[in-house]
Each structure stands twice: as C-alpha cells, then as structure tokens.
Amino acid sequence: MFTAAESDPKLSKEQAGPIEAKLRTALLKAQYARLQKAQRALLIVIAGIDGAGTGASVNLINEWMDARFIRTMAFGEATPEEKRYPPLWRYWQPLPALGRTGIVFGSWYQPLLREAAKKKPDPGVIQSLAQGIREFESMLAGDGIQIIKLWHHLSREAQKKRTDDLLAHRETAWQVHPSEIKVRKKFARLRSAGELSINLTQADFAPWHIIPSADPDMRAVATGQAILAALQQKPSPIRSNFAPDNGIPKAAGGRAMAGAKIPPRIEKLDYTAQLDSKEYDTQLEYWQARLAELVRHDKFKARSLILVFEGQDAAGKGGAIRRVTHAFDARQYSIHPIAAPSDIEIAHPYLWRFWRCLPAPGKIAIFDRSWYGRVLVERVEKYAAPADWQRAYAEINQFEAQLTDNGAVLVKFWLAVTRAEQLKRFHEREASPFKNFKITPEDWRNRKKWTAYMQAANEMLARTDTVRAPWHALSSNDKRHARVAVLERTVTALEKALDTH
To answer: Domain limits at 426?
Structure first.
C-alpha cells in the first residue's frame, strides 16, 4: 500500500511550476462551480504519519482555493465540555453546508489509529471503532457530503530528515511537534496502524488517497489533484454501509422484523383506557413529585434525559409536555418544537440539527416531534426519496445508540387517538377562540392520508423499538390517562437508569 509513497518520489521545480499553476486555476473554477450548484459539500480528511507535512497541506488548500468558503476544523484532545457529549458530537457541529468545503485536521480516526498502534492492540476495539467510522461516513455521504481522505506518507529516512531539517533552523523549529520526533522509534508500528485503518475504512463513498509527502512539490501536486478529481466527480448513488438487517430490532423470540409483516401496534391499543378527574389529580401530583425528585438527584448530574413526543395531530402532545415540565426547574430543560427545516438546516445532513440540540449531563431536552419526521411526514409526503427514508431506520438506531451509550436516558412516546376522536378535537379547536390557531389546512390534509401515516408509524415503531430506546405507544383518547402514563413511564425509565428504586 505504501510502497510508492516510501520510494519518496520528487518533482523538480521546473516540473512542478506549470502543474501547480494549472491546478490552482482548475481548483478555483471547480470550487466556484460547486458553490453555484450547492448540491454537495466536500469534506477533506487529513491524516498520515506525523512529520509528513499534513499541516502544510491544510495551509496549501486554503491558499490555492478561496478560503472564504472553506472551514478548517482542527481537533485535538476533547475538551471537558466536549467530553460531556457523545464522541461524534464535536464533529457534527461544524460540518460544511452544501456547496462548501470542510477540512478535518485531527479527526474521528485518532482513537482507531491510537489503538491500532499499541504494542498489543485489542482486535475487538479496533473493529468496533472502524465500524463506527464506516457508519458515520456512510450517513454523511448519504446526506450530501462527499468525503475524501488523504493519508500523507513517506519513508522512515525521509521523515527523520524532514524533522531534523526543520529543527536545525530557528525559523522552522516551531513546526515540529514532539510526536514527530518519536515517530522514528516506532515507525513500523505507526505504518502498520495506518495500513490497517485504511483497509478497514476504505469505501467508494469515502475513499483514501495516499499522498507521497517527502518532497513538498510532489505532496502539493498530489493533494491538489486528489481534491480536484473529487470536486469534478459527478454525484452517484450512495451504497449505504449499513447491512440490510443492521439496526432492525428483533421481535419476541429473536425473529427479525426485516421483511416481515408490520404489526398494527397502534390500532391494537386500548382506546377505552381513562381516568376520572379525582384519580387523575391524585396520580398527576404523585408522579410529578417523583419525577421532580429524580431530576434533582445527585446521580442525575452524570446523566441526561431526552423525551421524544410523536403522534397524530391533536393527540395531546403539548398537554403531556406541559405536565412533564411542571416537575422541572425551567433552567434545567429545553423544548424543541420540530417543524420543517430551515434553509440552513436543509443545507446540512438530516441529523445535524438534532445533534445541535442534545442536552449536557444534568439537563433535559424535550422534542415535540423529532428526527422521526424522515420516516413519517417526509416519507408520506414524498419529501424524502425512498432510499433516504428506508436508510433512516438504521441511521436513527445508530444515532440513538450513541446517545444512550453516553449516558442519556431516552424515552420515546407515540400518543395515539382514533380517527373519530381526532375529528372531534379538530371541530372543538375550530369552535374555540383559544384553540382555533392550532387547527390548520395542513392538519386536514394530513387526515386524508390517515392510512398512509398509520402504515409509516407502525413500521417506525417496529423498526426503531430497541432495548436501549424503546417506544411507548399510549392511547390518548383520554388525555388524562395519557398524561399520567407519560409521567409514569418517564419516572420508571429514570429510576432504572439511576438505580434509585
């Protein structure tokens, strides 16, 4: 893999000059063409052997292209703030918008490379880290981010010479990081770690390019040519890295849901369940008090709570949310009503806007509708292509697994009403001066597609009801019953997570 790069090829100044001049012009033209179309973003991942000139390549890209439309993202060790969130959280935040370019310097590859370079690496950890990278990059590629990865490489001798030459002069010594001096002692291990990491994460939608880096001109030309080829590449269908069954939960007894008939879970709810007003008042106060105690417990400081509310129009999501927040300190929670994405959100990967709303430990985030819009409204209204919403089940499960792995308690509710009850509530809203703002032409239009929405919702429940993030489908024909049930399920989930019961 590295044989050609370790031969340390060179370009003379006479050879490099004309090539570089043409490359700079072509890169600018391709960059502006990409900006005008705004169909895809370009993400350039910079990696390689320490001392191979990765920093110089980052500077070169910004110099040769229009830096106003390039965002360089340099990641070192995670800060205390970043460590409060899932590991990929910090990489989602600065992703480039469609048409723009991002350079990632220090990336999600660092944990994999560190593990692979150990004297006794753990094969299981390596496979898990590589799988996480493949899933992450596949998700980005499916949502319009083109990824190219540049591995800078040179021979052991050339790496030693380059660092020694830089150290020999006061003007350049600052460019040498201590890690670059240590490379010569463990070059073989670092080389093997790079080779293994590349092999495990090579993909058509996120290809690796080996950049010969001993000679600055050769490095510059190889870097520019790889980026130009990516900018000029026509979009092609993305083959998802998710296996067909990946992320699809098992039904009772271990039977895979994929390909099976979707059970009508919502239709089979007990819509006669109800509470009288006296019992409701008693239970409401009881469960709110228990919830208030839990979110103020010392153990909750290390966890977070994410509540997701989905359901038919007029199913009572807002009322249920208000009864839950009654137990919280207003400084502790945030509510995110999810509507159609803004232009800025549309220009980023689908899950981007949700990553930005995640709560820190000790905090609570409530989503009034959520990332499930992709497999509900976007599916039914054909805002998302079939390939996109079909892929989303596995992507959502993987996203939620990252949240719960990081300590979040994720509780998901589907509040359900019968078609007759919904019609009754629509008419009540129209007649009430205090509620008629809640009824819109869109509500009536969605009602006409009741069957399609029920089919989508039942499939969503079947394919994203996981052990770590289960769905709670609740009858909401009686709002009092639903509100108490939401509080009870939330308390039970928190007590289990905090081990306080």
So the answer is: 265-498
Q: List the beta bridge partners of residue 304.
A: 408
- Report the alpha-carbon distance of residue 185 to residue 181 in Å, rounded: 8
The model's pTM is 0.89
Nearest CA to 23 out of 303, 226, 175, 167 is that of: 226
Give the whole-angstrom CA distance, residue 462 versus residue 466.
9
CA distance 340 to 240: 25
Q: What is the number of domains present in the chain? A: 2
Q: What is the pLDDT of residues 406-463, one digit of tens each?
A: 999 999 999 999 999 999 999 988 887 777 777 788 888 888 999 999 999 999 999 9
- Identity of the residue numbered 391: R
A 10 A CB-CB count for 36 gives 9
Q: For residue 99, is it left (φ>0), alpha (ψ between -120 and 50) or beta? A: left
What does the alpha-carbon distance between residue 435 and residue 439 come to, in Å, rounded to a whole number? 8
Same domain, 371 and 463: yes
Nearest CA to 128 among 29, 73, 201?
Answer: 201
The CATH number of the domain holding residue 313 is 3.40.50.300
For the chain, first and last CA: distance in Å? 56
Q: Which of 172, 207, 232 is the last residue of a domain?
A: 232
Which residues are 250's β-sheet partners? 256
For 1, the 3-state DSSP assignment is coil
Both 186 and 318 in one domain: the answer is: no
